[in-house]
Design brief:
The structure holds two protein chains of two kinds. Chain A is an alpha+beta fold. Chain A is built from 14 helices and 13 strands. Helices cover 55% and strands 17% of the residues of chain A. Chain B is an alpha/beta fold. Helix content of chain B is 34%, strand content 27%. Chain B contains seven helices and ten strands. In chain B, helix 5 packs parallel to helix 6. The chains are: A alpha+beta, B alpha/beta. Chains A and B meet through helix 1, helix 11 and helix 14 of A and helix 2 of B. The complex binds adenosine-5'-diphosphate and magnesium ion (MG).
């Protein structure tokens, strides 16, 4: 007979209680894993944004446009390598519930600026040649079974009317964080039609994307751009893409902070759950521990028995929890809109943290029962009545 | 030859809410090797306390206890634990078996602290269970045994390491007449056949009759 066997048998004494405790830990580990994945995915996306890119937007709000004429002025600012721009098109493709990013971009410069996209050269050339061309992400192509040469029709809302685009390019993302479900078409194609139909709306872009030579000069270059348009009807606000991404979702950021906190609070909760189970067990077994001590078993043995059981339960719970976390997160990755979480995957650091958390819970939960067993004299243990 | 148990001027008090409760006052007692002594007395007179002190699971307030040549008051906690495991076998009123272990495993427990191999342990456990007449109940769990059988398993556990001394605290206190008789017969056999020195607390005169020496404890004094 081994100590392990005794630990195992002890843990099976109250099968329901142990099962519920294991389940509780499993669910907590699952919640921990998901919360941490949300947090780390977000961090990844922010960190992955290029430090060499600045975004210039309308100072009041991202939703107000900027004049197309700013392009050349920005290009002349010292430290600016290249300027491109984009405009949020929105619209509806097929049905309202299908959401993916649709943007009108500067066909001459956009693809060069976003080198996270891999597009065959010949396709970029086709895009530059044909006004109604568009380039879409490979995941988007897969979603709708689209191929080169197909026509995508958007029902415009911000830009009313029916818009037909011919797919001339399909990009793949160089990094997982780069959303592979976007659609880009030519801004000049849109603007041309606006000039005819609603000339007062023509000549505006959504925001500028600026490549700079030296990321350390972000502040200076931003300042020099914004000063250009000071006191004009469309003042600008320039910041790094990273800051832009973060600010774009300030409210969400608060949520992430809360999630971050919660993920660790959960670890505290499972400590209480398992701790409570272990304390109950130790109480019930007061006499038995007195017997063990009487027979000559040492404090070390008692610690082994209690800690062993506590760890057994926490490891089982953690194992079950992790086992469901993997498929859960994989499932989430399928359904979560790519534009929010281009990459949503369980990171090894999260797996490690879950394992550490489970072990920590096992150890900490054993502390009070161990203290109790050590502190109880043999004769007191025998006199103890439930 | 010196007595195997020598108790000299033993005092024991418990403290409850900073109030001293004297339990044993100036007890001196000798138990010869091979003796079967019954310790009688009314409830609360300190019988269990005296037994626990002699068996080394409690510490005296004052006085000396020498058992099998060892002054157990001078032993540290872990040395005392080791000493207990090889010198004293315990039998309790409520058997105190580990409920999740089989009869075999319960008896094997004390042997886990020895260097014996698995095979040797098995041999010892089978011998001990054979002596108490439960060779055919080895895989039973305590729940599947009667009270008398449980107590016999407990006795097997007490003798499996072959200690010189057995202490029994009201071993028949929770048993019916027939089972009690069996246990007493077994104790008698352990004393006569296996030469165990037995110190048994009881307030059952029938039980005490089996013993060859009877001592009475009253309000912490031997009379
Ligand atoms: N651990 C303890 N703490 C406080 N009082 C105790 C303790 N053990 C025994 N006593 C007290 O000591 C007295 C003698 O107890 P005990 O030795 O169990 O008597 P007996 O076994 O003769 O019935 C009782 O009054 C009991 O309440
Ligand atoms: Mg008693």
């Amino acid at each position: 007979m081994k100590v392990l066997k005794l630990i195992f048998k002890n843990s099976l004494r109250h099968k329901l209680r142990t099962a519920l405790t294991i389940l509780g830990i499993a669910i907590a580990v699952l919640a921990f894993g998901i919360l941490r994945t949300v947090v780390t995915s977000w961090d990844e996306a922010v960190k992955a944004s290029s430090p060499n890119r600045l975004i210039t937007r309308q100072s009041v709000s991202f939703i107000f446009p900027l004049p197309y004429a700013y392009k050349d002025k920005i290009a002349n600012v010292e430290g600016v390598k290249s300027v491109t721009f984009a405009a949020w098109f929105q619209g509806v493709y097929k049905d309202k519930n299908q959401f993916f990013a649709r943007m009108a971009v500067d066909h001459e410069t956009f693809m060069e600026t976003y080198d996270e996209m891999i597009v065959p050269k010949i396709q970029i050339e086709a895009f530059k040649r044909e006004r109604s061309a568009c380039i879409i992400g490979n995941e988007l192509a897969k979603m709708y079974g689209l191929k080169l040469g197909d026509v995508m029709t958007l029902e415009g809302d911000i830009y009313p009317g029916r818009w037909d685009f011919v797919i001339r390019g399909i990009y793949t993302s160089k990094f997982k964080y780069f959303d592979p479900t976007q659609m880009f078409f030519r801004w000049d194609y849109i603007d041309e039609r606006l000039k005819e139909e609603t000339p007062e709306r023509a000549g505006w872009v959504g925001w500028y994307i600026i490549r700079i030579n030296d990321p350390d000069k972000t502040a200076v270059v931003s300042y020099n751009i914004d000063i250009l348009f000071k006191n004009s009807p469309a003042e600008t606000k320039t910041e790094s893409e990273r800051a832009f991404t973060e600010n774009f979702m300030v409210s969400i950021k608060a949520l992430f902070t809360a999630m971050n906190f919660m993920s660790f609070a959960i670890v505290g909760i499972i400590m209480l759950v398992l701790g409570n189970t272990m304390i109950m067990s130790a109480r019930e077994r007061t006499r038995e521990y007195a017997v063990f001590k009487t027979l000559g078993f040492s404090t070390f043995h008692m610690v082994g028995l209690i800690m062993g059981e506590s760890l057994l339960i926490s490891i089982l719970g953690g194992g079950v929890g992790l086992a469901i976390t993997f498929p859960m997160i994989a499932g989430f990755e399928q359904v979560i809109p790519k534009n929010y979480f281009p990459s949503f995957e369980l990171q090894s650091i999260t797996v490690m943290l879950s394992i550490i958390a489970a072990l920590l819970v096992g150890i900490v939960s054993a502390v009070f029962p161990i203290q109790r067993v050590i502190g109880t004299k043999i004769v007191e243990g025998f006199r103890f009545v439930g | 030859m010196a007595a195997i148990i020598q108790v000299r001027n033993l005092f024991k008090s418990y403290w409850r809410n900073s109030l001293e409760i004297p339990v044993l006052q100036n007890i001196s007692i000798d138990v010869e090797e091979g003796e079967f002594m019954a310790l009688m007395g009314p409830s609360g007179s300190g019988k269990t306390t005296l037994l626990n002190l002699i068996a080394g699971i409690d510490r005296p307030s004052k006085g000396e206890i020498v058992v099998a040549g060892t002054d157990i008051g001078k032993l540290g906690e872990s040395a005392l634990a080791k000493w207990r495991s090889s010198n004293v076998g315990f039998v309790f009123q409520f058997y105190n078996l580990i409920p999740v272990l089989t009869a075999f495993e319960n008896v094997e427990l004390p042997l886990l602290l020895t260097k014996l191999s698995k095979k040797e342990r098995r041999k010892h456990v089978e011998t001990a269970l054979g002596i108490v007449g439960l060779g055919d109940r080895m895989t039973h769990s305590p729940k599947q045994l009667s009270g008398g059988q449980e107590q016999r398993v407990a006795i097997a556990r007490a003798i499996v390491t072959d200690p010189a001394i057995l202490v029994a605290d009201e071993p028949t206190g929770d048993l019916d007449k027939n089972s009690a008789e069996e246990i007493l017969t077994l104790m008698d056999r352990l004393n006569k056949e296996f030469k165990k020195t037995i110190l048994m607390v009881t307030h059952d005169p029938n039980a005490a009759e089996k013993a060859r020496v009877i001592r009475h404890l009253e309000k912490g004094d031997l009379v």
